[in-house]
């Protein structure tokens, strides 16, 4: 049986009133916030879904339902920690993670090092095993019109011996 498992996750949130967005566990000041039940951190939500997918554990909505008031306004780093507990309990360790933010704004670059460091610390990985990148959609679609932001995440897990 193969010891390596790949996973992929996607998340989208609409912009709403506010003065900051959370990206990868880092508060990024911005002219808007996001509409979300939790803190609306698209990078962390995509990452959690990628981890759960790789482990064959379903998705974030099954584990942390929007209908559960205990997750209201919750910091998504807590969701990541709870996700990692489940992934490790299923017998896996994280090998690496690759995340992409899709948005016209805010710009990722000034925050990339802080986000990478936070994610590496939380995942228990060397910074070189966590990659965070960004792209615009060339002003196309809802992301291009600045209506919200999205993230994709890919992870590799290895089964413990
Ligand atoms: Mg989300």
Summary tags:
about 160 residues, alpha+beta, 60s Ribosomal Protein L30, Chain: A, 5 helices, 7 strands, about 30% helix, binds magnesium ion
Distance between the termini: 12 Å
- Fill in the CATH topology: 60s Ribosomal Protein L30, Chain: A
CATH superfamily: 2-C-methyl-D-erythritol 2,4-cyclodiphosphate synthase
Q: What is the 3D shape?
A: globular
What is the gyration radius calculated from CA atoms?
15 Å
Total strand count, please?
7
CATH architecture: 2-Layer Sandwich
- SSE order: EEEEHHHEHEHE
Ligand roster: magnesium ion
Low-confidence stretches: none
Q: Structural class per helix/strand content? A: alpha+beta
Please summarize what this structure is.
The chain has 161 residues and is of the alpha+beta class. It has 5 helices and 7 strands, in the order ββββαααβαβαβ. The longest helix has 14 residues.
């Amino acid at each position: 049986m193969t010891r390596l498992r790949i996973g992929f996750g996607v998340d989208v949130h609409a912009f709403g009133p506010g003065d900051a967005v959370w990206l990868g566990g880092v508060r990024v000041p911005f002219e808007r916030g996001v509409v979300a039940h939790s803190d609306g951190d698209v990078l962390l939500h995509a990452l959690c879904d990628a981890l759960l997918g790789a482990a064959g554990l379903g998705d974030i909505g099954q584990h942390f339902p929007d209908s559960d008031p205990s997750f209201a306004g919750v910091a998504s780093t807590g969701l990541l920690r709870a996700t990692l507990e489940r992934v490790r309990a299923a017998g896996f360790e994280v090998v690496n993670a690759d995340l992409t933010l899709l948005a016209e704004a805010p710009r990722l670059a000034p925050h990339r090092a802080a986000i990478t460091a936070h994610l590496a610390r939380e995942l228990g990985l060397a910074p070189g095993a966590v990659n965070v990148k960004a792209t615009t959609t060339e002003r196309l679609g809802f992301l291009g019109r600045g209506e919200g932001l999205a993230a994709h995440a890919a992870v590799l897990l290895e089964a413990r011996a």
